Amino acid sequence: MAERSPTPAPRRPPRVALVVKRSAWKIYREERKDPRITRLIEAGDSAVARLKASHDAHEQTVREVKAALDDIGAQIDVVASAAQSFDAGELDLVITVGGDGTLLSASHNVGDVPILGINSAPGHSVGFFCGATSRDAADAIAGALSGSLRSTVLTRMQVTVNDKLATGRVLNDALFCHVSPAATSRYVLRLGRVEEEQKSSGFWIGPAAGSTAAQRSAGGRVLPLTSKRLQLVVREPYTPHGEEYRLRHALIQPGASLVVRSKTHDAKLFFDGPIHSVSVGFGDVIEFTQAPQSLTILGLSAKRKWGAGSAASRR
User: Fold this and answer.
1) Cα(161)–Cα(285) distance, integer angstroms
2) By the 8 A CB rule, do 67 and 141 touch?
3) pLDDT tens, position by position, 215-232
4) Smallest Cα–Cα separation from 309: which of 132, 139, 134, 140?
5) DSSP string, 58-99
């Protein structure tokens, strides 16, 4: 009598975290019922003209993403807003629905799991890191879960304050500055053998993925996405006598670090936007270096350049 082959164990459904942006319309009009926003909307003020259109496009994309996951049979383990923390350790995929800000915030919860950003309102939000839009979300999700969607591995930055880890997952940039934008930031930079005391509006520092954003706007270089270097860019350096700071712009090589001693009593370090931050005081020592853990982003070409092409053309 022939032996029967063992019955294969049923394949478990893919486990996904879904991180969804809360639109400005939802926050101020629907949740808070802000009277000022209501008056502006009723008056047809141009300041709020795009809020509803952006919200409607976003909500439609959210519905499409949920339907695509349901069709595939995926299990949504986590549903979170951009500001919420969650554990991605046992998941197969993290999907963000919003723009770059949503993906950047969610990425602080993500280690080895790949992340797919879906730009929910391309006409209203920036989606440089997003691998899909509402037009091709279903195909992108299917490709992400089957392993056929292209991926790019990006370097992240680690930050310590007084030798204690503040974060190891900065993808875009960190901003050091006084808590008041009208106040001067004072600090001492040390890179290799060069040490320099500076006064400025603060400084940006981050990995290559962030070089097209604030670093570029402040006069920095656009680095290849897969570069492992970090970049320092000082904002509005205060040099009243015409001198030049040696460390106004600097590239930090892999394995090297930038060390900063704060001479500001009320400073802040912001990581990838306004949500993640730590306070810094006078004498605190901050160290910036390449993080040991990178981030895998799906649907993003390693050769992508700022403002070039649609999400569909990047796969």
Assistant:
1) 6
2) no
3) 998 899 999 999 999 999
4) 132
5) HHHHHHHHHHHHHHHT-EEEEEE-TT-----TT-SEEEEEE-
156: left (phi over 0), alpha (psi -120 to 50) or beta: beta
DSSP 8-state class, residue 136:
G
Sign for the CA dihedral angle at 234, 235, 240, 241 comes to: positive
Residue type, 275: I
| Helix 51-72 vs helix 137-146: crossing angle, to nearest 10 | 40
Burial class (CB within 10 angstroms; exposed 0-12, middle 13-18, buried 19+) of 211: buried
The H or E element that residue 146 is part of is helix 137-146
List C-alpha distances in Å: 60 to 17, 119, 144, 264, 312.
Answer: 19, 12, 21, 46, 19
How far, in Å, CA of 126 to CA of 5, rounded? 53
Instruction: Check: pTM over 0.85? Answer yes or no.
Output: yes
Collapsing DSSP to helix, strand or coil, 205 comes out as strand
**Using one digit for the tens of pLDDT, what is the confidence trace for 283-298?**
999 999 999 999 999 9
Q: Is the dihedral of CA 199, 204, 208, 212 positive or negative?
A: negative
